[in-house]
Amino acid sequence: MLPLILEQTLNGLQYGLMLFLLAAGLTLVFGIMDLINLAHGSLYMIGAFIAAALFQQFQNFYLAVVLSILLTALLGALLERVLYRRLQTMSHLSQVLATFALILVANESIKIAFGGQPLSIELPASLSGTVNLMGEDLQYPLYRLLIIAVGLAVAIGLYVLVNKTRMGMWLRAGTSDRVMAATMGIRIQPLFTFIFALGAGLCALAGALLGPLLAVSVGMGEAILIPAFEVIVIGGIGSMRGALVGALLVGMIDSLGRLAMTGLLKSFAVSGAATLGATLASMLVSLLMVAVLFFRPSGLFPARD
Amino acid sequence: MFKKLTLAACFSTLVTGAFAADSVKVGMMTTLSGPGASLGIDIRDGFNLAMKHLNKKLGGLAAEIIVADDAQNPETAKQISERFIKKDKVDIATGIVFSNIMLAVGPAFFGAETFYISANAGPSQYAGAQCNPWFFNVAWQNDNLHEAMGKYMQDKGIKKAVLLAPNYPGGNDAISGVKLYYKGVVAEEIRTKMGQMDYAAEIAQIRADNAEALYIFLPGGMGVNFLKQYAQSGLMKKTPVFAPGFSADEDTVRGVGPAMEGVYNTSHWYREMENPVNKKFVADFQKEYGRLPTLFASQGYDAALLMDAAIKQAGGKLENKAALRKALETVKAPSTRGDYSFGPNHYPVQSYYLREVVKNADGTVGNKYVGKVADRLVDAYVSQCKMQ
Question: Model pTM?
Answer without folding.
Answer: 0.78
